[in-house]
Specification:
22 helices, alpha+beta, 7 strands, Serine Threonine Protein Phosphatase 5, Tetratricopeptide repeat, single chain, TPR_rpt, His_kinase_dom, two-stranded antiparallel sheet, five-stranded mixed sheet, about 70% helix
């Protein structure tokens, strides 16, 4: 519907003063002016645009009002058949839904808005819709897809010479690269956005967004004073525009930084502000993040009730954003969009075929020509039916694949929840193990000191019952010290087993590493108990050379295997007597692209029924009191996970055991 010239002039003047653009502003004095103009505007396309502009002024402080005005603009646009206004209203509805955390509905609305903008050739509306789709992808952690949307939006805004909105897309791109840990690219993009906004401060909401994003990059780079300065400038901007959403996010990132700098009081203050501001505008993403942060802070203060309350808030927000139902809706939306595209292509092909048939039928003049044309049309119809059947089969196959993928996603989600629970248990166990070391050390020291006091150095030795009592006390103290030492060994092995992955591998002389750890194991074995001594045979292949390894970690694994071999032959010697000759053989060799280290001993071997379990944590074939059951498990993890090798065992009960380590050459 055409807009009267006087009304268009009035609208243009007001929009120039107010800073028309797709980036919404918070409620401002311009709101009242807009409402007065709207009261005298009839139901035409100019009223649609005024409704949308009025909705933008409420976005950052009263999103419900924005939603109401956008819906009213959509209804009026539909009655007027004003596709441009309908597309922009649909985009504004999608924007509010996204900020409420209704990501599937927001995605659906923005997809429809994008189609309407393209149909009406509204480049500015299309650029806005693409930017909003990028925001939804960013919320879903789909950063490559978000980058594609932002790049497309940036290109359109550049064509339209909308430099402030170009800056908005640049700062969003910077956020994506910051999440991808590409901090140099993120910093360069944020600096470009900051320079563009310095030339033109409208829209002001983009300024707060860019300042907050620059603070996040500076914090990641370790520039903490600069990060705080940007966050405070962002808060100042939100005060000027009553922008509760960006204010909430700025408070949250300041709280994170204070937590990182071990300033819990300041972190708690800003986290509370972030939560309250986010709740005021129903911004669930920040409600989730701020709630989780508050839960951590109150847990550290030993206030479990408050920690549980905020963790519950965060959990509700997380489920509303990323729950299985939301992912299912998004998958269904993507599938529906794909089906719609297939149907459109099929309809276009059918329409083309219909036009061709109509044109041929119009040329029929004689019976022979009619017969020929009908035969040709019949063949075309059969071909179209065949193609349609093939496409239907493809759609069915895609639907089945989607169902399988959805089932797999649900299974993975269940596994992730279980893994997170076990990770928490592991962290708790590691903390308990560390705390147990101090009382155990005190117990052993106390036992040793007590034994020294009972020895009565330089004094007459008691006799009779008193001496028996003292001997019994000494024996008990020795037992306490021994069991305390064993408990400490178990805790040390547990901590070693839970230690994070290995450090950076370096070229390592494997023969030298094997020889050194074999020497340590041999010297550490109680050889005085073995008669005759262990017959040690070694063969180091010079072709082995160097391998990429973490020497400390790999050495620990080899030392464990050598110590087990000496222990096995010692136990066999105790049982078999002097006629038994204990033997341990260690050799290295290169086999193609692999390096092998073989450790052989003629001990008791391992029963076939338990041989497959020797690498499991806390499984041991040693008697109670000997070993912790973590040595072979730790060696297995170091070799297979830390060095991408293999560790296998070959054994025969009562005769021998052979461990073979294979490492990439």
């Amino acid at each position: 519907m055409p807009v009267p010239a006087a009304r268009l002039l009035l609208l243009f003047v007001w929009l120039s003063l107010a800073g028309w653009g797709h980036y919404a502003r918070a409620q401002s004095p311009a709101t009242d002016s807009l409402r007065r103009i709207l009261a005298h505007t009839p139901a035409d396309s100019a009223r649609v645009l005024l409704l949308l502009e009025l909705g933008r002024t409420y976005r950052a402080s009263q999103p419900d009002s924005t939603m109401y005005l956008a819906q009213e603009a959509w209804q009026l646009s539909r009655r007027l058949n004003f596709d441009k206004g309908r597309g922009r209203a649909q985009g504004m509805i999608g924007m509010v839904l996204r900020e409420r955390g209704e990501l599937p509905q927001a995605y659906a609305n923005q997809s429809i808005a994008l189609q309407l903008s393209r149909q009406s050739h509204d480049l500015e509306g299309e650029a806005y819709n693409l930017n909003c789709l990028g925001n939804i992808s960013l919320d879903l952690r789909q950063y490559p897809q978000a980058i594609r949307y932002y790049r497309a939006s940036e290109g359109l805004y550049r064509r339209l010479h909308r430099l402030p909105w170009v800056a908005g897309t640049l700062t969003n791109l910077g956020s994506c690269y910051e999440k991808l840990n590409q901090l140099d690219s993120a910093l360069a993009l944020q600096q470009r956005a900051e320079r563009l906004l310095a030339q033109n401060l409208r829209p002001r909401l983009a300024v707060a967004l860019a300042l907050r994003n620059m603070g996040m990059v500076q914090a990641r780079l370790g520039h903490y004073p600069e990060a705080f300065a940007y966050y405070r400038r962002a808060l100042h901007e939100t005060q000027a525009t009553n922008d509760l959403r960006n204010r909430a996010m700025a408070h949250y990132h300041m709280a994170l930084l204070f937590e990182q700098l071990h300033q819990p009081d300041s972190s708690l203050l800003h986290a509370r502000d972030a939560l309250h501001q986010a709740q005021a505008v129903s911004y669930r993403l920040t409600v989730m993040d701020a709630g989780a942060l508050l839960a951590r802070l109150y847990k550290a203060r030993h206030r479990p009730d408050s920690a549980f309350y905020y963790q519950s808030l965060a959990g509700v927000a997380r489920d509303s954003l990323f729950g299985p139902e939301k992912f299912r809706q998004l998958e269904l939306l993507a599938f529906t969009e794909q089906q719609q595209q297939l149907r459109q292509r099929a309809a276009q092909e059918q329409q083309t075929a219909s036009y061709q048939r109509a044109g041929l039928l119009s040329l029929l003049g004689v019976v022979l020509t009619v017969a020929l044309v009908l035969g040709w049309a019949n063949r075309r119809q059969r071909r179209a039916n065949r193609l349609l059947n093939e496409r239907n089969a493809q759609i069915e196959a895609q639907r089945n694949a989607l169902d399988e993928a959805l089932t797999e996603v649900r299974a993975i989600q269940t596994q992730l929840v279980a893994a997170e629970k076990w990770a928490f248990v592991g962290e708790l166990s590691a903390g308990i193990a560390n705390e147990l070391q101090n009382p155990l050390a005190f117990m052993r020291k106390f036992a040793d000191v007590s034994v020294g006091l009972l020895n009565h150095d330089g004094t007459a030795q008691p006799e009779g019952l008193e001496q028996q009592i003292l001997d019994g006390l000494k024996q008990n103290l020795h037992e306490i010290s021994a069991h305390g030492q064993r408990a400490s060994a178990i805790i040390a092995d547990m901590l070693a087993h839970a230690r994070p992955g290995p450090r950076q591998p370096v070229p390592t002389d494997l023969n030298a590493l094997v020889a050194e750890n074999l020497r340590l194991a041999y010297q550490g074995a109680p050889a005085q108990e073995i008669t005759p001594a262990v017959e040690l045979e070694t063969h180091f292949d010079p072709a082995v050379g160097t391998v990429a390894a973490v020497p400390q970690e790999l050495g620990r694994a080899l030392l464990n295997l050598f110590a087990n071999a000496f222990y096995a032959v010692r136990q066999h010697q105790h049982t078999s007597g002097p006629g038994f000759q204990p033997q341990v053989s260690v050799q290295t060799r290169r086999v193609g692209e692999w390096i092998e280290v073989e450790i052989y001993d003629n001990g008791f071997g391992i029963a076939a029924s338990v041989a497959e379990r020797v690498f499991q944590p806390f499984f041991t074939t040693k008697p109670a009191g000997d070993g912790t059951g973590l040595g072979l498990s730790l060696a297995y993890d170091i070799i297979t996970k830390g060095h991408q090798g293999t560790l296998t065992v070959e054994t025969q009960e009562g005769k021998f055991t052979r461990f073979t380590v294979r490492l990439p050459g």
